[in-house]
Amino acid sequence: EEQVARVRQGMSERLHQLESQIQGKLDQARERRETIEREQKEKLRNH
Which superkingdom heads the taxonomic lineage of this protein's source (predicted)? Predict the structure, then answer.
């Protein structure tokens, strides 16, 4: 019984870590996309 609780705890911690990593990657991708869009707009203005 106690072992099952420990295993569940470990699984939920691992899941939480994965969710954090995924969220971080999504944030990075969004920032990169916004940066690229900004640079493209500035190039259009400069030409």
Answer: Eukaryota
